[in-house]
Specification:
heterodimer; A: mainly alpha; Cytochrome Bc1 Complex, Chain D, domain 2; two-stranded antiparallel sheet; disordered C terminus; B: mainly beta; Sulfite Oxidase, Chain A, domain 2; Immunoglobulin-like; 2 domains; 5-stranded mixed sheet; 7 helices; 24 strands; 10% helix; 32% strand; globular
């Protein structure tokens, strides 16, 4: 009997035990997908990162940097770095970020930061990552807090005395905060806006 | 439209010249009966043509150009361009004609200086270089990619006299190849509370979207190749996220970070933009999946039929929910419908090509197509599609496209 046939015979007889042994050895090829992930052999080349600075600011305040800025300071930054494209009053045609509160259910809804955006953190996040257009990510944290405060002041949402930091920014009540219906995206079998007629 | 959409109820031929989907062969066989003629002698018959080239380009006789290249009045690099659907056939969009949509231009990224970092609710934060990702197991899939603003011009009160591409060209079909995201998430180790992933681009807009974890584990990939070659810069070189079946905006290009969290980040692009305002003033958020839809690409807007006789009506259909089950075509503005033949690999979230022969007698008519997917979703009429939303809303419009053919053979976008 050749070695091969001998090995095959042994395997046939004891194959259940081989499988058990392999499972115990946690071969990545055979690991069960009980955590929802499809395990397979990969080179695992990710380098550990310990100090990554996140740019993402969420409504719970995560990602907000230290620093602060007031409406008064924000007016200076806004007039110097934003007004050319958005208007001194924030109502530049085709680039309006102020006004329209209460217009959403009308025939001519005016969608702006004030009338539509549900969270003040979104405004901070967006100014910090994308504005001023053409020179994104050049504002200091203080300047972003300040312009955020000023844009909300122009919208009549906060008072002239407002100063924002990582705590006070979270206290803003945006007029349209409850205006959104989140389609149930958590459940993969949920209706998600498809084919509704 | 009957509720049950029983395929078998749809006839194979219908009013105003729609023919059985298998009848074109006979018709063209007749056309051939005239016999072959040798091509006229031309330069290319005897003199050698151009030598080899490093990177090919189309024939100078093929008129291939992206359309509607437009930008924001205060930031022209925030703009888009459309694929000329009427010049193409099949289910693959050539890379050079793939529609473009970006918020701060097309960055010119050196892959040696670009990294993808996974962080947040993970056991380990991990950073991947472009080169390291090339070493991972990859998959190739044909998928459609549609901007959620595609066809928004058809929401305007008056029909725009434009081509199929200018109206509906923010859609592509391509073979995308990349690393399934679950490999990388597995390597980093998801924490129990992980439910959303915030994807961030390295461009000047820092484009950012929140995507539910289940979509990221099931089918999403870090795409590195587009139709066989490395991604084009406008499509995210060196790497983009690809989430099949969903609005193009979440397939973040120039992907540089994935942050895992309990909840969405509610970024500007999922609040101010890419939300759907309803008539009562409320708005739908995270309407990610793209609806069932189709468009006839030939004959289509601004084309001119210059003879009576047999034409092939051809177009494409797709659904973010499923595969395409049937496409019905009408030549009389929706009074009667006939089933088109489908050509596809029957993959979910991919483009399907449909075709049906049509005898044009010179009578005016309106050509329409209506797609039905395997989940039973039926493409709605324009009126029904518009009814869902506020007049100010223009995302996720999937109404039936109508092309009017006049007796002089001109084809034009109309509302019926």
């Amino acid at each position: 009997m050749s070695m091969y046939r001998f090995a095959k015979l042994i395997f046939k007889r004891w194959q259940h035990w081989f499988v058990v042994l392999l499972l115990i050895s946690e071969s990545p090829l055979l690991m069960a997908a009980d955590d929802g992930l499809n395990h397979s052999l990969t080179p695992r080349l990710g380098e550990r990162v310990t100090a990554y600075v996140s740019s993402i600011v969420s409504p719970d305040g995560s990602g907000l940097p230290n620093g602060s800025g007031s409406v008064t300071e924000g007016k200076l930054v806004y007039n110097a770095k934003c007004a050319a494209c958005h208007g001194v009053d924030g109502k530049m045609q085709s680039n309006q970020i102020v006004g329209g509160i209460g217009s959403l259910a009308s025939e001519r809804p005016v969608v702006t930061v004030g009338s539509y955006w549900p969270y003040a953190t979104t405004l901070f996040d967006y100014i910090a990552r994308a504005m001023p257009y053409g020179q994104a990510k050049t504002l200091s944290a203080n300047e972003v807090y300040a312009t955020t405060a000023y844009v909300l002041f122009l919208n009549g949402i906060v008072s002239e005395q407002t100063r924002f930091d990582a705590t006070t920014l979270l206290t803003v009540d945006m007029p349209n905060q409850d205006g959104f219906v989140e389609l149930n995206e958590i459940d993969s079998n949920a209706e998600s806006g498809v084919g509704k007629q | 439209m009957s509720d049950q959409n029983d395929e078998n109820e749809i006839p194979h031929a219908a009013g105003n010249g729609l023919m059985h989907r298998r009848s074109l062969l006979k018709a063209s066989a007749l056309g051939l009966a005239g016999g072959f003629l040798l091509p006229a002698k031309a330069d290319w018959n005897s003199v050698p043509g151009a030598p080899q080239s490093a990177y090919g380009s189309p024939s100078k006789f093929a008129d291939l150009q992206r359309e509607q290249t437009i930008g924001h009045p205060f930031g022209p690099a925030a703009g888009s361009s459309s694929t000329p659907l009427q010049s193409l056939n099949g289910t693959i969009t050539p890379n050079s004609l793939h529609f473009e949509r970006h918020h701060a231009g097309i960055p010119d990224i050196d892959p040696a200086q670009h990294f993808l970092t996974l962080y947040g609710d993970l056991k380990n934060s991990l950073r991947f270089s472009y080169e390291s990702l090339l070493a991972y197991p990859m998959e190739s899939h044909k998928y459609f990619l549609e901007c959620s603003g595609n066809s928004y011009r058809n929401t305007f009160p008056t029909a725009q006299d434009l081509t199929a591409g200018s109206l509906n060209g923010l859609i592509s079909g391509a073979e995308w190849t990349g690393v399934p995201l679950h490999y990388l998430l597995d390597e980093a180790g998801l924490e129990k509370e992980a439910s959303w992933i915030i994807a961030e681009g390295a461009d000047a807009s820092g484009h950012t979207r929140s995507i539910p974890l289940h979509r990221m584990l099931d089918g999403a990939m870090v795409a590195l190749y587009q139709n066989g070659e490395p991604l084009r810069p406008a499509q995210g070189y060196p790497m983009r996220l690809f989430v099949p079946g969903c609005e193009g905006n979440i397939s973040v290009k120039w992907l540089t970070a994935l942050k895992v969290q309990k909840a969405p980040a509610y970024t500007r692009e999922e609040t101010s933009k890419y939300t759907d305002l309803l008539k009562d003033g409320s708005a739908e958020m995270f309407s990610l999946e793209m609806e069932v839809k189709s468009v006839i690409t030939s004959p289509s807007g601004k084309m001119q039929l210059n003879r009576k006789g047999v034409y092939e009506i051809s177009g494409m259909a797709w659904s973010g929910a499923s595969t395409i089950r049937a496409v019905e075509v009408s030549a009389d503005g929706g009074k009667t419908w006939a089933k088109a033949s489908l050509q596809s690999d029957n993959q979910p979230n991919a483009l399907t090509r449909f075709r049906i022969p049509w005898q044009w007698t010179g009578q005016p008519g309106v050509l329409q197509s209506r797609a039905i997917d395997h989940k039973g979703n039926v493409q709605p009429t324009r009126d029904v599609a518009l009814k869902r939303y506020s007049p100010g809303s223009f995302y996720h419009y999937n109404g039936i496209q109508s092309w009017q053919v006049s007796s002089d053979g001109m084809v034009k976008n109309v509302y019926v």
